[in-house]
Every structure is written in C-alpha cells, then in structure tokens.
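Annotated sample (chain length 99).
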Amino acid sequence: MEKEINAGYTITDRLTVANAEFVIGQSDSAPAKFVTWKVKKGERDYYWGHYSNDRLTALEDLCNRALDEVHHLKSLRQEQNAGENPVRQNGKKKSVPER
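Output written by the structure step:
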C-alpha cells in the first residue's frame, strides 16, 4: 500500500464509520507530532484536525471521534424509526422488544 501524506503528516491509522473516516497523521518535523482528521470515505479532503504531541492521546481521540459518529448515526436511526412507528389510537406507542 502506498504511503498517504496530508499536510506533511503520514497517515498511520484509519477507522471507518459508514461514510466517514477518521485518521491519525504523524510528523516528526511538525510542532505537533500527531493529528486526527475526519475525511469522507474515498476522498482526500481532511478537516477538523485535532493536534497533539502524544500518540496515545491521538489514538484516544481517534477512537472517541469514531464513537461519536456511531452514536450520531444511532440517534438518526432512532429518529427515523420513531417516525415510522406511529402512535396507537389509545395514545401508547407500539411496544418493541429490546435486543
């Protein structure tokens, strides 16, 4: 696999959540050695960089950003499902067993 570089940072790690990807970039010459970015899957337009000097901090940020995206997608799905399950005439919602 070819080495991917953005703004002088080598992309070392990547997590994909639906159509979003979160990456870690590393640079030995930059003031901040590590950065996490968000990028649309299949594109190279990196944005919302979070910079740090510690790899573990960058890795934690990468995971947290990916989890935030998962939570966002789950909340969107719940909103969509709520719109598809109309309220019954007696005012109670149709009960669905939890998984």
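Annotation: The longest strand covers residues 9-17.
Annotation: The mean pLDDT is 89.
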